Amino acid sequence: MKMKLVRHTKWASLLLIMVLIIAGCSSNSGGNTTNNASPKPENSPVATENSTNNGDGDGDGASSGLSGNVVFWSMWSESEPQAKVIQSAVEAFKAANTNVTVDLKFTGRDLSKLIKPALDGGEKVDIFEGDPQVSIGILKDHVLKLDSFLEQPALEMDGKTVGESILPSLMNWTTSLSAPAGLEAGAYAIPQQPFAVLMFYNKEVYDKAGITAPPTTWEEFMDINDKIKASGVDPVTFDDAYRDLFIGAYLSSAMGNEWVDQLVNDKTGEMWKEPIVQQFANDIATMQQKGHFSKKIAGSKYPAAQQDLVLGQSAAYLNGSWLPNEVSETAGPDFEWGSYQFPLVSNGNGKGGHDELNFGAQSVMLNAKSDNQEAAFELVKYLISKSVQEQMVAEAQAIPATIDTAWPATLAEAQVAIERAKINAPWGYGINNNEDFSKGTIIPIFMELVEGKLTPEQYVEKMSGQAKKFYSAGN
C-alpha cells in the first residue's frame, strides 16, 4: 500500500530539522556507538548476549571483536532450498560481524571429492560440510576438535551451550565417530541437517486400500502389501540408487548391523548359508511371486521410483528423510506423507530391531589449520541457531538439528524413530561395508532374486560361492 504525500510547508521543514538534530544528539550521547549493521534477513538469527559480542548484545560488528575472512564450502547447489537458508544465515552473521567477510562457495555433492585434495594442498577452507561418518576418517589430519567450542553459549537457546542445543542422539553419534577414525575422543563435527532412513509411503494409497496404521512386523508388512496389491497399486518400489537399503535393512532388523558387517566380510562364504539368509531369500521370493514389487523395478533408474511413489503408482519406498523435499514439486503441497521404521524381522539374534536405525546428519566441520577459528565457529553458531533450523524445516522440509524445534509435518512420524533409536547403523546397515563386493556381487544377485531369476536356494548357493570367489582373488 502506498502512503499519501504530505504537503511540504515551511513548518513541516522546521519540524523535520528539529527531529534530525534530536536524533543526532541521542545517537552520540554518553559516547555510545550506533549500530551500523545492515538489516538482517527476515527470520534469521540475531546476535544476542549469548554470542561473542562482549556481552552488549547489540549485534554491532565493531564490538564483536571478530575480523578477517571466513571461507565456507557447502555441499548444496545454489538453487536448492538448503542453500538459500544457509545464504540467509551467512547474511545475518555478516550483519552482526561487519569486520568479517565470508567467502561462501556452493560446490554441490562434488564437495566430498574436492575437499580432501583442497585441504591436502593447503587451500584455505575454514568450514566445510559433509557426512561425518565418512569425512572424519578421510580427513582426520584436517578436522578440528570442537569440544571447547561446544561450551560456548548457543544463539537463541535460553542459556544452553552449543552442545546442549543439538539433539542428544546426534551429538552422541557424532562424538562416537572419533575412535573409529583414530582420533582423540571428542567431537569433530556439528550436526546441522539430520536424516533418517525409513519406509516412506503414500497415505492416500494406504487409505484407499483400507490400511489405517503402518506395519510394525514383517508379517503385518506382508499383509498390508497384499491389500495394496489388491487395490491395483504396486506395494513396494526402489531404484538403482537405493537397492542396497532393502537388503541391509532386512538382515540388520533380524541380526544387527555388526552381524551384517561380518557377513559382508566373511572370506569363506559360509555365513551366506546361515538360516537367516535363507529366510531372507524366501521372503523376497514370496514378495516377487505375490507381485509386491513394482513392475518397473528391474530397470528402475534414479529418480524414477520416487516419482512413481508420489504419482500413486507405487505405495512405499525405503529412502532417506530428504525424499519429501526432493519430490516436492511433483507431490505438491497437499500430498500426504507417511513413514515407518523397517518392519521387525523374526528369528533373529535379538541385536537388531527398532533400537537400531540408520540415521545421522550432514554436518559442519572446521579446518584444524584455519587461522580464523573463532570467527568460523561464530558463523557455525548461526547455521545451527534455532531460527535457521526453523527455516530449514519450513523451506527444505528438513529435520531440525536443535532441541525443542518443531519438525515438518511431512516427517512427523520419523521423529518417533529417531528419538527411540539407541544404535546408529551405517549407511545400508552395513551391507556396503565392502563397497566393491556390494556393488559387484551382493546387489546384482539380489536383483536376480527380486526379478524371479533365482530360487531362494539358488540365491544362497550363488552368494556363498561368489563371496568365496571374491575374497579368494585377494580382495
From TrEMBL:
Pfam families found in the cross-reference section: SBP_bac_1
Composition skew (Low complexity), residue ranges: 50-61
Region Disordered, residue ranges: 32-61
Keywords assigned: Signal
InterPro entries: Bact_solute-bd_prot1, SBP
Signal peptide feature range: 1-31
PROSITE patterns: PROKAR_LIPOPROTEIN (PS51257)
Keyword Signal appears in the UniProt entry: yes
Protein's name according to its UniProt entry: ABC transporter substrate-binding protein
Organism: Paenibacillus yanchengensis
